[in-house]
Fold:
Amino acid sequence: MNLSTLEMSPEDAAERLKEYEAQLAGERTAEDDAIRSGYRAAARGLPVIHLPTVIGEGGRFPDGMPRLAIVRATATACWVNVDWWRGAEVDDITFTDHRDDRGRAAVGAHRVAVRVPAVPVVQGQRRHRGRTVVPLIPPQHRPNRRRLHLFHILWEVEKWDPTPPVDPALLRHIRGDLWSVVATWDLTPLERAVLAARPS
Structure:
């Protein structure tokens, strides 16, 4: 899986961060806070991504379903719902760790919603719901159990069915559409075999 990152060196990010941290707290906007948080992650050497860009660049299957998925790291299954409107410029894609995807927050306790460029609607060839298995996190990348809920997993979907994925990434939400990439790895054939046996 190739992730388009927002390119900046840790040194440049640290320099920019100083400028935003020097700003008086009373003068900061929500956008200033988001930028400051992004620079803080980049200054620590973590790659930063813009999630709608990554999901959009990940592409779609012929039926319109996304080729990438994201869900909270505590989940074992991921449901997706794609809302599209004929002639619209964007599609709304919502990933959840359970069937019910109601909610308004873009990133909530159980959901992540993104808006991506629309793909043409072909009558009879569009799916709008799917479910797949969530990859496991190997011990060397796994946060401790008490902090696991603070992380998400992003991966390339082989199929919207229980087919196990290959190359996930562990993410931490920064603010808005910005996420830091904490770790990436490839699942071994043995790990994929265990995931394939996970009860549905």
In short: The longest strand covers residues 77-83. The CA atoms of residues 45 and 85 lie 40 Å apart. Residues 50-196 form one domain.
